[in-house]
Design a protein that fits this description.
Layout: H1 4-12, H2 21-29, E1 31-36, E2 41-43, E3 51-57, E4 60-64, E5 72-77, E6 82-83, E7 97-100, E8 104-110, H3 111-120, H4 122-151
Antiparallel strand pairs: 1-8, 2-7, 3-6, 3-8, 4-5, 4-7
Helix pairs in contact: 1-2, 3-4
Length: about 160
């Protein structure tokens, strides 16, 4: 989907704005629009991860599936937030589940193609890894906090 509007969007996006123009163009070429309806599952924990997303419009809930009862909702991501890091880290399986809270439009990226370039160009790969590692840290901390809030037994210090 390499088009100037996607490249321009990435050039001002907080997560990608400091990347060189050739990288932004490459990422744009690896992207496509993906639409999902309210209630649909974008991906499930344990499935093969080979993509990542930017929420262009809408809301996507990150969840931890429960063995019994309702899923534990970790975070809800909205406009311009990046979603998905499992495509970058072996064993390339989703660590959470994502469900549309409302009809949403996403920018979907081909993680397989991007990972191949990461392998060919270690500097490029390292720059992306640093960006996604920061996001991973925030998401895992949000999951830890939410689990402590929800699953803290009464009287537990």
């Amino acid at each position: 989907m390499s088009n100037p509007s996607t490249t321009e969007y990435l050039s001002v996006h907080e997560f990608f704005c400091d990347l060189p123009d050739d990288v932004l163009k490459f990422l744009s070429e690896c992207s496509s629009i993906y639409e999902i309806k309210k209630g649909q599952i974008l991906f499930q924990q344990g499935e093969k991860a080979d993509k990542f997303y930017i929420v262009r419009n809408g809301r996507i809930a990150l969840q931890i599936p429960a063995i019994m009862g309702p899923n534990l909702e970790i975070q809800t991501l909205g406009n311009d937030q990046v979603l998905g890091w499992s495509w970058l880290i072996s064993p390339y399986q989703w660590n959470f589940q994502a469900r549309a809270e409302e009809d949403s439009e996403l920018l979907q990226f081909d993680g397989t193609a991007i990972l191949a370039r990461c392998e060919q160009e270690p500097k490029f790969g390292y720059e992306l890894l640093k960006k996604f590692a920061g996001m991973m840290s925030m998401r895992l901390e949000a999951a830890r906090r939410k689990m402590m809030e929800e699953w803290n037994p009464a009287g537990f210090a």
